[in-house]
Design goal:
Layout: E1 2-19, E2 28-39, E3 42-54, E4 60-69, E5 75-86, E6 92-101, E7 114-121, E8 126-134
Antiparallel strand pairs: 1-2, 1-8, 2-3, 3-4, 4-5, 5-6, 6-7, 7-8
Amino acid sequence: MLGDLIAEERGQVTGQRVVPGDHGLSPTVETSFTGSGTLLGVTVNDLGSYSARMRADGTLKGDAQGVLMSPSGAHATWRGHGVGTSTDSGGTSFRGAIVYESDSPEFADLRGVAGVFEFEVGADGKAHGKLWAWK
């Protein structure tokens, strides 16, 4: 069951590169980004990257990872997986799941919880994401 909205973030793509696909698969686009927002009500800065590979049906298979930190030093790492589509305006839209790891007391409520996300990236590289708890 989906729970409460636990995170929201806005960010910017900071770099991209195309790498060859493995075993005859299509190339993968690696994208790095920075973002800021809140996670469990805590202000955070996020640094992450994701790889997206175009599949035969035109959808994107995405894998992501990152680290985030609050101004007070609370920190967490995360890994996500999802599926995306290209938008008519030249951006991408992803849906998927994220799992966090942290020993910071501020993020104790992330233990044992998967998050489901919506992540939109415009053609201008501006990004916006939301995350709900999946309990």
